[in-house]
UniProtKB/TrEMBL annotation:
The keyword Manganese does not apply. This is SDR family NAD(P)-dependent oxidoreductase. The keyword Oxidoreductase applies. It holds the Pfam family adh_short. Keywords: Oxidoreductase. InterPro entries: NAD(P)-bd_dom_sf, SDR_fam. It comes from the Bacteria. Its EC number is 1.1.1.-. SUPFAM superfamilies: NAD(P)-binding Rossmann-fold domains. Belongs to the short-chain dehydrogenases/reductases (SDR) family. GO terms for molecular function: oxidoreductase activity. It comes from Levilactobacillus lanxiensis.
């Protein structure tokens, strides 16, 4: 049986690490693209503890690095079955009128353009093999406006529309493109001051775990999800639907 291969961007921390771990558990050869420190990479490898988990240094905002990474994966494994575009950053929470536009551009470059760069390189491979699934990680901030920065909203809204447009383009080639949009996930990106507040907005009364989000990403790649294409799948524990009126308010 041909081994299935997945590239997970941001795959050595947070949602990306949990996603990499899930795909390894399901038998995939996993390549994590990461810009994390050597210490974080070593910790990620120790946590997963499988030879099928490989880490490459790759800044998704660098087109040349992305092309090199994808070419190396194809050379080693001969195929790419799944791309999970997880890598992303938060922008500084300031009003746009006070914002450092370099920070705005960096946020959009990593969150949106990084997703586009990686998807383009992988889509070329998937078109040749006639199959594959691309899962982009969006956000509730791509659906509704809240206190987050303008830059983060713009980047994730772009990811949502990019997903829809790319799905339409790639569908004739047997490739699905889906976006999973999380709410408040318990990662290192959530400031401590926001943790208690965020918990009140979700139906379970707590933040979503990285493993739960990884499970949602995994589900989108299954044959049973074949009818889901070009969709933004909300993995926000009801936040967007109930406008933050969680179970604690009932």
């Amino acid at each position: 049986m041909t081994k299935q291969v997945a590239i997970i961007t941001g795959g050595t921390s947070g949602i990306g690490l949990a996603t990499a771990q899930k795909f390894v558990q399901e038998g995939y050869e996993v390549v994590a693209a990461s810009v994390d420190s050597a210490e974080k990479v070593a910790a990620a490898k120790a946590q997963i503890g499988e030879k099928r988990f490989n880490v490459v240094s790759c800044n998704v905002a660098d087109r040349a690095a992305v092309a090199e990474t994808v070419a190396a994966v194809v050379k080693q494994y001969g195929r790419i079955d799944v791309l999970a575009n997880v890598a992303g950053i938060l922008a500084k929470e300031v009003d746009l009128t006070d914002a450092d536009l370099d920070n705005v551009e960096r946020t959009i470059q990593i969150n949106l353009m990084g997703t586009i760069y990686m998807a383009q390189a992988v889509a070329r491979v998937m078109k040749e093999q006639g199959s594959g699934t691309i899962v982009n990680v969006g956000s509730i901030d791509g659906v509704m406006a809240n206190h987050e920065s303008i830059a983060y909203h713009a980047s994730k809204g772009g990811v949502h529309m990019f997903t829809k447009a790319l799905a339409r383009e790639l569908s004739p080639f047997g490739i699905r493109v889906v976006c999973v949009a999380p709410g408040w996930v318990d990662t290192g990106m959530v400031p401590d001051k926001a943790r208690a507040y965020g918990s009140k907005l979700l139906m379970k009364g707590r933040l979503i775990t990285t493993a739960e989000l990884a499970g949602a990403i995994w589900l989108m790649t299954l044959p049973e999800a074949a009818a889901i294409n070009g969709s933004v799948v909300m993995a926000d524990d009801g936040y967007a639907e109930f406008k933050g009126l969680g179970i604690l308010d009932l």
